[in-house]
Amino acid sequence: MSFIKGVLTGAALGLLFAPKSGKETRADLRRKMDDSKKSASNYADKAKVRSGEMSQTAGEATENIKLTLSKTAKELREQLHRASEEIKNEARTLKDDVKETAEDAYVDVAVEVEDASEKIRKNVDDSTPNSSQAETSQSTTHE
């Protein structure tokens, strides 16, 4: 914008101080205006090209960011899935270990109870008199 103002100011000053005829001055003005229009058009074209390049670069950067975010999200989902599966497997293993330990404890307690019951039966049998002696002593006492 300031370029155009400068051209117009220069043209106006040139008119005031130029010792040329009106026809020559108008031709010079026309040429300078045409040059100014061409320069402005060239600047506009360059700006359009640069704008298109920046737009394309911004679009590519946006696409790259989207791809990176998508890839990162996918990797995080996969890591969470693997971690979840590992935790599930550990929980199953722990559950199986607890079940096996409980079964072993049950068997151990059952064996101990059976052994204790056997000892009690043996002690009871040892402490009671012979059943034939008990019958004999009962018949003797009834007579």
TrEMBL record:
Q: Which parts of the chain are coiled coil?
A: 66-104
Taxonomy of origin reads: Bacteria, Bacillati, Bacillota, Bacilli, Lactobacillales
Provide the alphabetized UniProt keywords.
Coiled coil
Protein name, please? Gas vesicle protein
UniProt superkingdom: Bacteria
Per UniProt, the ranges with Basic and acidic residues bias are 24-38
The ranges of region (Disordered) come to: 24-63, 117-143
InterPro entries, per the entry:
Desiccation-related_membrane, YtxH
Compositional bias (Polar residues) spans? Answer: 53-63, 126-143
